[in-house]
Every structure is written in structure tokens, then in C-alpha cells.
Amino acid sequence: MSSVPAPRAGLGRPSLEAAGLALVLLLGFRFPAASGRGWLEAGAALLFPTLLFASLGRGRRPGWSYLALALGLVGIFYWMPGTIAVKGPLPYPLALLAGALFYGYEALGFLAVALAGRWAWRRGGPRFGAGASACVTALALLGWEAYGFHVYNWSWGATLGGLPWAARSAAFLGSHGLAALLWGAGAWAGTSLAEGRRPSRILAGPALAGMLLLALGGLWPSLPRGPQRVLDVVMVQPNFEAGLRRPGMEEDLWRRSDAELKLLGWPRPGVATLLLWPESSVLGRDDLEPSPRMQQEAQRRGIAWLFGTEGGDFNLVRGEVAGLPSFIQAKVVPMPFGERMPGPPAVRRWLDRTLGFESQQAGVLTAASSFRIPTPQGPLRIHPLICSEALMSDRVQAGLALAGADLLSNHTNDGWFERSPATDLHAAQIRLRAVETGLPLLRATLTGKSGVFREDGTWELWGEPMTAAAYGFQLRWRPITTPARKPWLVPALAALLALAGAGLCARPRPS
To answer: What residues form DSSP beta bridges with 328?
Structure first.
């Protein structure tokens, strides 16, 4: 006997329901510029799958759910066609079509997750349906986020990054695990609501999820820590035009940097100083080439210098510090379509010729992929992430496994976003990298907002988009060894969810 009730007359107009669902989705990803509204993000991120499963469970056609997902994604990523048009460059109608394909594709993935959860609910029957739906939904969402193809690698779990006590759970589950937890709890609540269960049954899934977050947050202080590190950090945000190539870019940034260093009185005895410039801060030359002059720039100032530049078809970061060879790391995962056409080489070359595009070359991770600098506390390793690379947990895991790190840096060209909320969205989507790895993440942007994400889930963003600024601060931290650094985490979570889901779906149902 199926546990699915007959469609109810009181469902209301499907178009209004879809619009309401889209609004809830949008509220979950309207990330604030400062902390304090994390409850809104987390609450909407749980409420959306709850209402989605309640709607599907009560008989609403999946097409309306797909519309709600697509509309919500339009609200979150409405800036994407404009960015594509500028970065392409492409005619705006063609950029609008590209945006529509993105919205439709991403919505289709989430709909598939929801339909898998609905199937498990029906399969589990009245007794086990909610639990089966929760496990299968969590498994499907985990697979979609971690292994699906995404142009923009965003995670539902990032919505918990605004609550430090909840964010600390990412040290154990990672952002994909948190996303699976939210959707699993929503599937439990939504299917129980569709069945007309008592409030205690409806709230049981979200309550268990909340208890797990509290328990993991309580375990976070017990994670092993290394010795305390101290670093003086200066970030320069030049507000250059996106993609600008002109003579004198480096000289301009040195003037700003020297003024900030003089104002702060840095470097100072007993503390190393790191100067960060963003992605695309120096363009128009090949910085793959040796340059003793650049090392001398860092040496005579007594600092370590790490900046975003280019060389040939590579998007680079380059680091200089006295007494050590130049550090050069190319972007390992160029953004699909924006920086490199996806697919096999033959397909990529055909797309490049057809569209008049030139794909960037991809860099390679090695044991030398972290910038090593001397400090009074001993050598310090800084692992740089170029713009969208910080969105990808697996890219960060791979870099740390090969090169190790005591600190993360993110060099971002956010000038393409102009004054849209895209720079906040990017910042919010990378903030859990600090908790996952147990290392602070320094975010240096071209046009704002720069900031720091700490390993304890707290964070700061400064300034406004399209502004020039310089920031200096002292960073103190103790590197933490976290389970989320391990590449086996997502497969282990998937295996557990698969076993639980299979067991609940296979349970005999009453006739």
C-alpha cells in the first residue's frame, strides 16, 4: 500500500506556490555583507526542501517544482548574463541564452534529487518512507554537489557558514555533507507534512540534524592543533577595471602598498609580513619568466609578496621572498566557459575556433604548490587558490595533500561582477574552506570585498564593491587537523547513506 495521499483540493494555485518556493530559495542565498543574519540563510535553506517535498508529496506536478527552482536560481544568479556578456565578450541576447541554459541545467539537477527522494518515500511506505526519503535525498544531493558538472561550483551547505557554531561542523562533514544534512532533514519534514503527521514527527528530522550540528560543534575544540602562528598581513585592493592590461600596474600597486606599510610601520621585528595582491593585479606581461628584479622588490622591503598575474595562456599567482626561488602556480581548474572550454581537447579546440575564444591552459599541482616563506616561528606554507578554485573542496583537498599548508589565500578578480551581489555570493561560498581545512583563508579581491575567513567559522569582509582600499591586520592562529581535509570523506558519507537508504527502502511494507 502506497503512503502517498491523493492530491488535495486545498493546494492552492500552483503558480503562486511556485513563486513562494522561489522566494524562499532566494532568501537562503541572499548572503549578507556582515555576520548577524545567518539564521535567515540557514532557516530558508532548510525550509525550501521541506516545502518542496511537501508539495511533491501532496500531488503537485514536478513541472511546477522545476519552475520554482529555475525562478529561484534566476533570483540568485541574475547577474550572470551581464557578466558573461562583458567577459565573453558576447552580444547580450547570446549571454542571456547562456544564463538561461545555466538556470535550467542547475534546476534540473535539484529536481532529480527531489524526485529520487519522492521515489524513496513511496518505496518506504507509511512506516519508513520519511527515513528512506531523507537518506536517499541526502545521498542524491551529495552526489549532485560533489560529482555533478557545474559551471559555478556552489554548495547548499554554505548557508550554514553565517552561524559559527554550525559552520564548525564543516570540519567533520565538509560543505557537501552539510548540504546533504539540510536536504535530508527537509525531505523528512516535507514528506511527514504531506502525510499529515503530528508536529513532533514532522520536526523530528530537523531536530536530529540540529542536535548533530551541536554535537559536532562541541567536538570541534578537541581537534588536534599545531603551534601558534603569527603573521602581519597587508592586502591591496586596487579597483582596476576587469581584464585591464596597461603599463604601470605593478608600480601603481607598489605605491599603494608602500603607503600602507609606512602607515603601519611594518615590517617589524619578530613578525613576518605578507603582502597580497589580487588576481589580475599585474597583466600584460609574461611572469613565467625569471626576474631577479621582482625578488629584489620583496627583499628591500623585508616582506613576502604574493600576487596574481599571467604568463602565456596561464592564469598565475607568483610569490617572491628574499633568499628563496620565485614561486609560480598556475590555476589548476579554469572556470568552464569563462576561462576554458570544457570537454576533450578536440572538442575544446573546435569550440574555441567556433566562438573565437582562447582557452586558458590548466596548471598542475605538485609538492611545490605552496608558497614557503621564513618566519620567526619557522617556515610557513601558504597555499594559493585563484578565484573560483576556492569554491571547490576537492581542489583544496588535493592541494593540501600534495603541498601542505599552514594558511590559504584566495586571489580574486571580482571586477566582472561590478556592483551586483555576486561578490558576496562568492565570498559566502568559500568561507567554509577555512573550517574544512582548519586554516584561515585570506581573500584579496580586485575591486571589493576583501576579508579573512577564520578556522573557527568567524569571518570579516571589508568595504564595498568597486572601491580601492588597503587593509593591514595581524593574524594569529593554530592550524587544525580536520577530518574534512581527507579525500575519503565524501565517499564514506555516500556509502553510509546508501546503506541506510537501501535498508529502509527494502523494509517490508504493511499490506
So the answer is: 318
Contact 426/412 with Cβ under 8 angstroms?
yes
Given this model, what pLDDT does residue 439 score? 98
Residue pair 2/118 in contact (Cβ under 8 Å)? The answer is: no
Q: How far is CA 468 from the centre of its chain?
A: 24
Dihedral sign, Cα of residue 225, residue 226, residue 228, residue 231: negative
* 483 vs 507, higher pLDDT: 483
Q: Give the cell for residue 454.
A: 577564520
Q: List 380's β-bridge partners, or say none.
A: 373
Q: Is residue 142 domain-shared with residue 281, that is, in the same domain?
A: no
Give the integer Cα–Cα distance in Å for 297 and 267. 14
370 shares a domain with 246? yes
Residue 7 has pLDDT above 90, yes or no: no
Residue 6 confidence (pLDDT) above 80: no
Whether 434 is covered by a domain: the verdict is: yes
This model's pTM is above 0.90: yes
Is the domain of 282 the same as that of 205? no
Q: Average pLDDT, stretch 404-414?
A: 96
Are the CB atoms for 143 and 163 separated by under 8 Å? Answer: no
Question: Which residue has 564595498 as its cell numbers?
Answer: 464
Strand pairing partners for 307? 318
Together in a domain, 154 and 273: no
Cα–Cα distance between 453 and 435 in angstroms, integer? 8
Instruction: Please choose, from the candidates 454, 496, 510, the residue with its C-alpha nearest in 3D space to the C-alpha of residue 212.
Output: 496
